[in-house]
Amino acid sequence: MHTTDFDAEWILKNLRLSTADVVGWCRGRIQTSNASITRKGKNWYITLDNCEFTINAHSYTIITAHKRT
Questions:
Q1: Domain count, the chain
Q2: Domain of 16, in residue numbers
Q3: What are phi and psi of 38, to 5 degrees?
Q4: What three-state secondary structure class fits 23?
Q5: What is the pLDDT of residues 9-52, one digit of tens each?
Q6: The predicted structure's pLDDT at residue 69
Q7: Rounded CA gap, 27 and 46, in Å?
Q8: What is the C-alpha to C-alpha distance for residues 22 and 65, in angstroms, rounded to an integer?
Q9: Nearest one of 60, 66, 68, 69 to 27, comparing CA atoms
Q10: How does strand 62-67 pair with strand 51-56?
């Protein structure tokens, strides 16, 4: 699992994170037992608590993450 530098900045901003390891933080959250994972087309959508992650199913690139309202 990885992300681009540009997407990492957006994830930091969207989730208001203060970590240097965005991918590690996202991976840790996604691997929790209460994560709901669905696949729609070319992407995985993972929801848990008040966050939603979008990950490309082929390359495992974290496309975005944001808070759900």
A1: 1
A2: 5-67
A3: -135, 155
A4: helix
A5: 999 999 999 998 999 999 999 999 999 999 999 999 999 988 99
A6: 74
A7: 11
A8: 10
A9: 60
A10: antiparallel
